[in-house]
Amino acid sequence: MQMQCKPPPLNNLYTFNIAAKYLSFSKAAQELSITQAAVSQQIRLLEQRLGFDLFMRVHRGIHLTSQGLALKNPLNIALDKIQNTLTELSQNNEKSVLTISILPSLAIKWLIPRLSDFNQKYPDIDIHINAHLGLSDFIHDDLSVHYGYQPKNSLLAKLLMHEDIFPVVSPKLLGRKYGFNKINDLKHHTLLHDSVDCHFEAYGTSLETHWKDFSNLLNVDISNNKSLTFNQAHLVLQAAIMGQGVAIARSVLVADDLASGQLVRIYPDHSIQSPGYHLVYPKAHKKQKKIQLFERWLLSICDPAQANQESIRSNHK
User: Is a pLDDT exceeding 90 seen at residue 140?
Assistant: First the structure.
C-alpha cells in the first residue's frame, strides 16, 4: 500500500517558490520582507519534511536539485491558481465601480439607452459615466469609448463601430415646399451646426464634419442659408427632431431616432465616413473582471460576431 505524504506548510512552499525563482536566498528575503536566515531556515525545514534536498549549495550561490526542479513548475502553477481564485473571490465579494470616459452626445444618444441591459446582467457593477469632450488620462477612468483612435504602446483598443455621416431632418419638413426632392432644395432650409470639433489630434482623428464638407459633396451653394448653432451634437439632433432645420448626423448617434421615425435621412446616396469608435483602456487594466465583462457586453451590442469570437477565446484561456 502506497503511503500518502502529508503536504508541508504552505508558507514553506511559498518561500521555496520565491527562492527557486531567483536562485538566491537574499533576493527571496527581500521580496518576502524577512531575513536571509529566516529563508534558509524555512527551506531547511521543508527539506527535512520532504526527506530530500531542494537546493545544491555551491560557493557562488545555489542551484536546484533534480527534485527541486520537479517541484518548481507544478508548485508555481498551483500557487498562481490559488492567487487567481483569491482575487476572483475578493472581486465577487465586493461591489465594483466602473468609470467610463465618453463623449456627452454618445453617452446620451447611444450608451445610456442601452445600459439597462448591462445593469440587469451585472448588478454587482456600478457604472460611473464621466462625460466630457477631452481625452482620458485614465487616472480616474477605467476605460474610454473614443471617437477615433491612434494606437499607443500603453493602451489597448478594440474597434466597436464604423460610422457614416449624413444629413437628416424631421419628417415634418418633407411635405413642405422644397421637401428635399432635389439637392438644391437644401438651399432653402436652416442649417443646424455643431460648434464642437472632436478632432482629438493625439489620436489621429480628423476634424468633425461640417456643412462645408457637404456643400462640396452635394455640389450645392449653401453660403446664404440661415444657421442655428449648438455646442453639443445631441442638441443639434434635438433641434432637428423639433423641425428647426437640417442636421448633420453621425449614424451611431442618430440610429434610435431613425428607427423611431423622429428623423429621416435625406440624400441617402451621399455620406462621409467617420473614424468610428473604439474601446480603449490601459494594458494594466486588462485582467480586471469588470473591464472584461463590460468589454464583452459592449462588443455584443456593437458587433455580435466579434463578441462571440472574444467569448470563444476567453473560454479557451
Answer: no
